[in-house]
Predict the 3D structure of the following.
Amino acid sequence: MPILTLDALTKSWGDTQVLRDVSLEVREGEFIALLGPSGCGKSTTLRLIAGLEAPTSGAIRLDGRDITATPPAQRGISMVFQSYALFPHLTVGQNITFGLSVRGEGRRAQAEKLARVAPLLGLDKLLDRRPSQLSGGQQQRVALGRALIAQAPICLLDEPLSNLDASLRAEMRAEIRALQRRLGLTMIFVTHDQTEAMSMADRVALLRDGRLEQFDTPEALYSRPASSFVARFIGAPPMNVVTVADLGAAGAHLPQDMLAGLRPEDITLADHGLPGRVAQVEYFGADSILSVDIGGPHLAVRLQGRPAIGPGATVHLGWGADALHLFDATTGLRRDAAAHHSRTSFQTA
């Protein structure tokens, strides 16, 4: 049985519907990322789970128990906010145990729990410091410690890394994921950063305009996107999505009412193939990204190292049959390309 179930959650503010019939199940010990662009409903979903907002319709169940109308303090869910919400006049230790104090837990029990949690986060030697004496990463660990010490069945994290610089974000990604695995915690993590979602989560819920677009493993979102939106959102650079007609002869045997998707790394330079002109070359060290004009749309092509071609060069592009993804041009939904694979290879030696 799932530890958390969202059943047809809808949330409206007046005439504006910000969440539309969202349903998903979270298994115990999973790390789930809620991902999507600004305004997609990911933070609203987290606030509904926490009880900070009430859904317009739908139900939330924790361990099979309906908690839709249960006050936040009685849900048994901990939360880490983007702002950390640390009290400047309290020490690190007092900040971590603040929730226990509010609930009236005894000092001895608080001290025992603090002694277990602080070393996990590398805070055992910083317990007497104030938040102003800590780095951004250390403040993040204090906020996380306050959530962990509550021993709640689910920990919610609302963009907790967004205030950190890039190098510290990468460090904290690894730390949080390692801690979650070591303790077997169930975590739900809101982020707009696909790198965080794809590198940390067991499964990713990608939202768009308040709807759940796809809920699957990072591998599935990348290799088998459920829609053209997912294809265009996941990846850096994302999947190239063009009309079948844009592929010229390569799309001649495909249904013409389809969109065709190709990952940049699946496209190669060929002796013969789809003709194009290099518009731009971006060099990143290990690889380069070419922007190739194919007569209107541009295709991103990822090549290893620095290619011996530059802007203005004429190239021909090829790809293997298994590289092609098809989407309905009207709905954007994925269509099975398997039936067309034998005829859509455009890889030329």
The radius of gyration is 24 Å. The CA atoms of residues 93 and 127 lie 5 Å apart. Residues 338-345 have pLDDT under 50 and may be disordered.
